[in-house]
Task: structure prediction
Amino acid sequence: MGVLLVLSDVHRAGAMEQGRRGFDSRAVANPFLRTFQRGYRRYVWMDDPMAHNHLLEAIVRRVPDPAWVVANGDFTLDTGFVGVSEEGAFESASEAIGILRRAYGGRLRCTMGDHDIGKKSFIGDSGGVRRRSLERCESDLGIPRLWHEDFPGWRWIGVTSTLAAWPVFRPETPEEEVGWWQENHVRHLEDIDRLFREATDAGMRTLLFCHDPTALPFLRGLPGVAAALPGMGGTVIGHLHTRWVLRVGRVLAGVPKVSWAGHSIRRYTAALNEAGCWREFRVTLCPSPTGIQLLKDGGYLTSEWSASGPQVSWKAHGLPWSG
Result:
């Protein structure tokens, strides 16, 4: 079939978001925590998250004619922390998806990331998930909450990780939206279970695209997914930006949940508590194009896709650091 290209966590910063430098620090009222965050960004995570737009075009130049492309979420920098319901974030995501659609047309499949839908700031209490962001991803950006592609012996499935793992994000949900999220969370899991059951009944292996691995324990609890796991060809995640974080996550799998140290620690420990199931999903991380400041280890994935293989073999490609 040819080359399958996977990229994730583009975090485009359009003109409006470019004008919001220091957005994350402004979300932190406590001066001590603000100083900590600035140091963490400068030396560990990302000193200037707005300096790397060119890496998306670099990937397109490097892989101009793949057979298929999957963009696995987080198209926007999300400087408002509420996803693409906010105009700056929407502009950024539109730019990123526009570049990909002009380059790849109907060969492109997209999943939603947590920043596309909204999430609270790393430190501070700004933002959260927004129904309007998820709906706008669907209606205005053309990203379905669930998609699948069938090939001889295979089914590819793309899910919306925030919706599948919504109970983790419940504390970040506006009270008036809770009923909608609960209803759509249950329906999303039912639809995912059906796609996996159909694949198993038809003797098809599955390849899963899921932005945030926090969703995987919720999928593991579905009978159709559990039945498909022994024959699964693999799962591609994003969200973590660097394979170093994936390795740390595997080491810390099973740690207790911590609910008293803020929403970020609560989310991280909730995911790590059940991260033991990542092995069953045969997880492969697609890094962000930038990686992280400390390691400068960004890139993307390709596979010489063959429907005859039992699993999918991935090749990681690095990108030169700048910024």
Remarks:
- The chain is about 40% helix and 15% strand.
- Strands lie at 2-7, 68-71, 108-110, 146-151, 154-159, 205-209, 234-237, 283-285, 299-305, 315-318.
- The chain has one domain: 2-309.
